[in-house]
Amino acid sequence: AAAAGAFSLREVLEAFQRCVTEQREVLLEPYLSGWRGLIRFLQSLGTVFSFISKDAVAKVSLLEGHCGGGQGQQYVSLQSMVRHELAAGPAALRARSDSGCRTVLRLHRALRWLQLFLEGLRSGESRTSVLCTDAYNASLAAYHPWVVRKAATVAFCALPSRDAFLEIMNVGPREEAVAMLGEAIPYIGDVYSITQELFAQHKLLDLP
């Protein structure tokens, strides 16, 4: 399902806009919707990002299973998910490879990389390969083995130009794409910050 249709930056913006409630809870349905859009963005760039997009597809699918399963009411928001999964105790949570918390943590790290990369594309001060490498080194690289890091930085050298990226956004002229990135990035950043704080509070940032 995640691969269907073309990428639209507007859809991603609207999904992340809907994510955060007045109580600062992060709703999982729009969160996953935003991620499905980001996956389409990664897939539209070809094989360069397949090592991240394939993993994200699997993680989104796993979370969809939790949200649509028998315990679905516990997976309405990130906060309710954390409360539910921690109720069994931290040790039980750490032992589960399919937990929602562990799955969100993996997406959360990748979201930081995308946030930094999109911010770089918006400001456009460097070549896309440099922007992407810098964003990767400041986020995901710390969690990848050396061989993946090496392959990623080599792959980033083949990235298209900034203009090509802005065209992929599917929102019209370049200026519109830049303006919409300016709108979208703070919403993505807000979701990232709330998640980071929640996971830090419950000591979940290093789940194996």
From TrEMBL:
The keyword Thylakoid does not apply. Gene3D superfamilies: Glycolipid transfer protein. InterPro entries: GLTP_sf (IPR036497), Glycolipid_transfer_prot_dom (IPR014830). GO terms for molecular function: ceramide 1-phosphate binding; ceramide 1-phosphate transfer activity. It catalyses: N-(9Z-octadecenoyl)-sphing-4-enine-1-phosphate(in) = N-(9Z-octadecenoyl)-sphing-4-enine-1-phosphate(out); N-(hexadecanoyl)-sphing-4-enine-1-phosphate(in) = N-(hexadecanoyl)-sphing-4-enine-1-phosphate(out). Its main location: membrane. It is found in: Cell membrane; Cytoplasm, Cytosol; Endosome membrane; Golgi apparatus, trans-Golgi network membrane. GO terms for cellular component: cytosol; endosome membrane; Golgi apparatus; nuclear outer membrane; plasma membrane. Residues 27-170 form the Glycolipid transfer protein domain. Pfam families: GLTP (PF08718). SUPFAM superfamilies: Glycolipid transfer protein, GLTP. One of its GO terms (biological process) is negative regulation of interleukin-1 beta production. Keywords: Cell membrane, Cytoplasm, Endosome, Golgi apparatus, Lipid transport, Lipid-binding, Membrane, Nucleus, Transport. It is a peripheral membrane protein. Belongs to the GLTP family. This is Ceramide-1-phosphate transfer protein. The lineage of its organism: Eukaryota, Metazoa, Chordata, Craniata, Vertebrata.
